[in-house]
Amino acid sequence: MTVNLGLLIVAGALSASGVYLLMERSLIRMLFGLLLVGNGINLLIVTLASSPGNPPIRGRGSNGHTADADPLAQGMVLTAIVITMGIAAFVLALTYRLFVINRRAAEEPSSDVEPTSTEGLDDDLQDDPEDVKIATGSLKNFPDRDRSDDPNTGADTVAGDFFDDQGNPMTVEEFEAAHTGVIETDLMPEDAELLLHLSDDDDDLPSSHTESARSDLAKLSDGDEAPPSDSPDGKHEGGDR
Amino acid sequence: MIPQSSWITVLIVLPTLVPMLGAALTLLRGRNPAFQRPVTTGAIGIALAASCTMLYLTTKNGPYAVHVGGWGGRDGGTSPLGITLVVDRLSALMLVVSTTVLLCVVVYAIGQGIRDGTTEQPVSIFLPSYLILTAGVCNAFLAGDLFNLYVSFEVLLAASFVLLTLGASAERVRAGASYVLVSMVSSLIFLAGIAFAYATTGTLNLAEMAVRLDEVPDGTRNALYAVLLVAFGIKAAVFPLSTWLPDSYPTAPAPVTAVFAGLLTKVGVYAIIRAHSLLFPGGSMDTVLMIAGLLTMLVGIFGAIAQSDVKRLLSFTLVSHIGYMIFGVAVGSTASTSAAIYYVAHHILVQTTLFLVVGLMERQAGSASLRRLGGLIASPLLAVLFLIPALNLGGIPPFSGFIGKVALVEAGVADGSVLSWILIVGSVVTSLLTLYVMARIWTKGFWRARADAPEGNMASSTPSALVEEGTDVLVAEREDVGRMPATMVVPTAAMVAVGLALTVWAGPIFAYTDDAADAVLDRAEYITTVLPHDSTAADHLMPRGGGR
């Protein structure tokens, strides 16, 4: 059996253009990409199945051909075309819905739906918000992990926790009162020890780490300018995780 | 070989046909939930009964094949020309497990709909789409023909597209769009694989292909296998091809996510098992599969650790545990294939149960985010329902997760190669990390007080996931917080019980999966069942490729 090289090249070109379109963000272009790849593969099936011949209908001839074409391949392609058509209809409906949603989001900036790309097209696919949250997340975005960075080492210090829910600085006593009985699962054991020791009213604190925390605290409670480690916009990007 | 009486022929067709007819009926009476509900449960019930009968018959008599249409054949009636449906032990087990899951979940979904008072609302297409999904899944397990497999994939995908975007809220459309495109790309790759397979062997009947592929040069075979593996790998969410899954599944309604998580990826795994053992024995891709399995396990579970949304977290564990099955398939011995089959059954049940429980948690607490959850221990029933499958997934000794993992590890030890030792270590690490992740849900969601959750006060609740978007209701405004509807709890509890049954009867089930693995790896039985008159078929078989 010989295979028609020209048709194979056409199938390849169709698939390649389709894949190129699939790399886009716009749903309509991706749909066109799907259709192109689908047609390319359908052509591939027909080309690979048999050399050109008579139509797969008994008693019908086409000029010059002796063999019949393979009806099975044509049946399969027909099925594939129908399936692709159905999915294309679904994708079109989806695109329209996405268009409506993105338009609405652009018109009402206050709505829940945040338009991720303002300059993009209305049918652009958007990133998963949870993924974005994790990719861009840092300690300062996570209320349960708001330990601020040590100005020297960039490591977390407990001093960052001495704020109440409204963001006002707390004293050690207030902090202790608010946290009695709370088990902080994400604290390393030594940090947890540190919390216990903080209120001890003497100088033999376990480490210099604690002293920096205490000095931060002292500054805070004195009402001085906040130390850089506690600035709410988190200047120490290096400490972010 | 016993004569194939006509009622067995009917039996094999039932799991596909009855849900399809049910879908047509429920679609006709779309505005009448009182009609839709019994028809749906009835149709899936019939499919379950048929699957159980087939399980019994295949255990007793071996596989059955039906050529729908029953045309003779091209070359003098030797090879079938109809649509071939085959049921062997592996398919029968998969069918029974999936129809059980489908039945429980549909009762749960109906219960949720009734409970939330959405008699008109729950989009009249939910149950018809669900039935089509059922038909697609059952047909995929029965397909004895590569193109039939493709069509059943498309049927279940089309239904899953509809289910995933129910209500068409912004979030679901966004997730649905990427899901649709990824699924379509995998289907197109599969179609290309079919084109190559047809060009290479001149047939798409799996049994006939198995015979003819043995004579194909190795390079061509491997290329063909690689194309099919990529297609199945996307569906099964094997590592480099798995990133679509955690993006799309969690946005769907709880019952839908549960079914997807349990079944859709397993259809891909099933296709990989079939292709690996029937079409391409000899283990040419074993190394690739092993590395993919290892990475799937580790990357999946590391992803789970980073998540705070329970549904997304579970989606990542879902990806992670696909790695175990791939491991079992890749080792390729009878023991490992048997363990992989057992693990597939176990994982379908456990993962579905967990998603159902999360649906209950979400309903109870108004949120599935670990930053908002807390104090769920107030409902001990829910705690038990969560804890059992969670420990099961993590592989705590008495449960089926442990049994499956031990069997996999034993098979890996028996294999003894360096790579399989690395995989054993990887699987143990994954198991421990799964346990850590589950403990995190437990401590944060159940054990701590709601007030201690960082955003505990912000939780709002969506009464029904099937209702239109924008219906968030504050927990404080809800009447039934703290009470769980029996129609949702009973199916969940039933799933937990079925999961436990897998532990209690682990011995007989393992004996069964051993038989199934034997039959799958020793292809002669399958091939002679499909091609009874082709006396040359069995002689052409390559020596069995099991065991590297």
Brief descriptors of the model:
heterodimer, A: 241 residues, mainly alpha, 7 helices, 49% helix, 0% strand, B: 548 residues, two-stranded antiparallel sheet, two-stranded antiparallel ribbon, 20 helices, 71% helix, 3% strand, globular, disordered C terminus
Helix count of chain B equals 20
Biggest contact: A-B, 42 and 43 residues
* Biggest sheet statistics of chain B: 2 strands, antiparallel
The residue fraction in helices of chain A comes out at 40-55%
| Sequence of secondary-structure elements of chain A | HHHHHHH
Mean pLDDT of chain B: 83
Low-confidence stretches of chain A: 115-119, 200-210, 220-241
Number of strands of chain B: 4
Structural class of chain A: mainly alpha
Helix content of chain B: over 70%
Rg of chain A, nearest Å = 33 Å
The outline of chain B comes out as globular
Note the run of SSEs of chain B as H and E: HHEEHHHHHHHHHHHHHHEEHHHH
User: How would you classify the helix and strand content of chain B by structural class?
Assistant: mainly alpha
The helix count of chain A comes to: 7
Mean pLDDT of chain A: 69
What can you see in these coordinates?
The complex is a heterodimer of chains A (241) and B (548). Chain A is mainly alpha-helical and 241 residues long. Chain A has helices at residues 5-22, 27-49, 71-107, 129-136, 172-178, 189-198, 208-222. Chain A has seven helices and no strands. The radius of gyration of chain A is 33 Å and the shape is elongated. Chain B is mostly helical and 548 residues long. Chain B is built from 20 helices and four strands. In chain B, helix 3 packs antiparallel against helix 10 (254-279) and helix 10 runs antiparallel to helix 13. Chain B is globular, with a radius of gyration of 23 Å. Chain B starts with 5 loop residues before the first helix and ends in a 9-residue tail after the last helix. Mean pLDDT of chain B is 83; it is low at 460-479 and 542-548. Chain A binds chain B through residues 22, 27, 30, 34, 37-38, 41-42, 44-45, 48-49, 72-73, 76, 79-80, 83, 86-87, 90-91, 94-95, 97-98, 101, 105, 112-113, 125-126, 128, 130-131, 134, 142-144, 182-183, 185, and chain B through 147, 151, 154, 158, 161-162, 165, 168, 170, 173-178, 180-181, 184-185, 187-188, 191-192, 194-196, 198-199, 204, 247, 250, 306-307, 309, 312, 371, 443-444, 448, 452-455.
